[in-house]
What does this fold into?
Amino acid sequence: MSRARIILLNAALGPLDYRVPHGMAVAPGSIVLAPLGPRQLTGVVWEPERLPAEEVGDNRLRPLLQVHDAPPLGAALRRLIEWTADYYLAPLASVLRMALPSSSALDGARTVTEYRATGLVPDRLTPQRAQALERIGERQGLVRELALAADVSDGVIRGLVKAGAIEAVEVSVDDPFPAPDPEHDPPALEPAQAGAAELFVGAVRGGGFAPFLLDGVTGSGKTEVYFEAIAEALRQGRQTLVLLPEIALTEPFLKRFAARFGCEPVAWHSGLRQSQRRRAWRAIASGDARVVVGARSALFLPYRALGLIVVDEAHEVSFKQEDGVQYHARDVAVMRGKFEAVPVILASATPAIESRQMAEIGVYREVKLPDRFGGARLPDIAAIDLLQDPPPRGRWLAPTLVKELEDNLARGEQSLLFLNRRGYAPLTLCRHCGHRFQCPNCTAWMVEHRLVHRLACHHCGHVMPPPRACPECGEEDSLVPCGPGVERIADEVRALFPEARTAIVTSDTIWSPAKAAEFVGRMEAGEIDIVIGTQLVTKGYHFPHLTLVGVVDADLGLSGGDLRAAERSFQQISQVSGRAGRGGKPGRVLVQTHDPSARVIAALVSGDAEGFYEAETDARREAAMPPFGRLAAIIVSSEDLEEATAAARAIGRAAPEVENMAVFGPAPAPLAMLRGRHRLRLLVHAARSLDVQDVIRDWLGTLEWPRSVRVAVDVDPYSFL
Ligand code: ADP
Ligand code: ZN
It folds into this structure.
């Protein structure tokens, strides 16, 4: 072809045509470099018939500069990118960007220069240099990466290189990854497991789109079973993508995978160094990376020969991306399976109502594992009524729970206290004047983090040291923390059991796969007696000596008018309960609540998951809420409240009259201010059958607003803030 239609990696641009110079070969999917004004941008060749663009005469076309040395994006991936842009009302370029690596991975370079400490102490050891060397430790990476890790300038790192304290190392970025061996160490499956595995293996062998819902209680061996499907994909020479909801879960997964297959899979997450990212991307695109495990962002990578997709903990809301392209990785994973014509396994002990409904109507095939592996029993769950059995003043653990912790310690078994709140206290106020510390940029309280001696906003990241005096009334030492976070519970535990070894597990303490690995190692070695953690510890982990779980505040997730609040609480408490009694010893779960008769709590205690889901599903059906109806949120924001309000009202006034659709608002969003921007929200509620994206596209397409106003559409929203 002599001309080519290109999607450039710039969301503000539509598709553009270029001339293909003589001797250059491109096809749909080719990754190219194109001139734009004085700049050079990466883009991808697209089928012109799928992508209307302004017709430009041949003589006005500029020539493409280069085809990158990387395989073209396949047709299935191109269709997925189109579908995602269409469904989530996002620019094609923004979706495309998720499939491509940074430009450095596209160049031909086979090695990069990284740096690491030599162990030499420089003659001139400034505090900055000392800090850099201490924080860098064993780390290796680009100058920029080391500077970031050490929180110093690039100049400090370069100075250390000159002084001989840091040295350069050449790293090959095209080293092949080892190939996992499907026959390395297969388990002997139990009959129910074997039945499930056989179905999956058959689906992988046969190829074709086949979505499965693997619904198995915690500890039933879901992972072992889908490993059999991966083994079959390996035998077929096909790639597997495993999506996990949280990068903290990657490290234990890598270890477990290595035990089964003889080597680790390829990891893909935000914690990779640039050289690792480049190596992984190229191996994925060449087909050399046989099994890839990653967070959401692994979903759009250009697998050359995909044979299977697994979404583990598929019910997790963290699969929903909340900024940029607001997509749901679970749903897009199923679409990818469809376009690639491969099986997709959604694994969960507490499937989302959306997924259960798909199984119910026969779109997904449901596969159940009703029992724990090896005869292990599911833990007994009991409620503690905080009105009957209250903790002493200023404390949060009820006497019954404290007694159980004490007994468990005496037996040498491990316990876990779950509270989904980071930091020490969610609110700080002045005892003298009642002043409450609020984030200057958000409608949110500043959360005290005592470990790092900071007040922090969990929405925008704003931090400040806790002041000695109240900024409102000037009274000194008058600030009091209100309510507990995990750090405060940890204090209480230490006061009660000074000899117990405790660990706090939150995103503040476990912020990298390496930290997660360290935590897992200490748990397995029996170096921790009591874990106090947020939702980060509720899933995935397998600790055989953990026998007691205490849920500090089961009512926490139920407040607020969120559509999925009850479902999410049920899932979270079931998941955290599932950490108890996974080995030979039985587990016990105590749930602290002010309302033991609440439907969620009653269902957890009686073990009536089916009854709970049925009631929730009926309520959704009656209200025509997802999955029986559709929602989309339109968030209008600006630094200027009047401007945001005017734009939101204009959008509201222009709302089309469409049958089976209602528009609510605009109204201030619950998070009325976020990162210094005022936010208003419109909510669109429509029947399932309505193509609500089309309606919104037409509706918003005719309107204009100032550049300083941002309008974001969230299709199938999960956050109602
Ligand atoms: P789930 O993913 O359903 O929570 P796992 O796959 O983590 O369950 O299994 C729980 C534990 O039981 C793990 O330690 C796993 O290795 C072990 N297990 C499960 N099935 C088998 C089996 N057939 N043979 C040996 N160990 C198994
Ligand atoms: Zn804030």
Notes: The chain has a mean pLDDT of 92. The radius of gyration is 27 Å. Residues 401 and 631 are 41 Å apart (CA to CA).
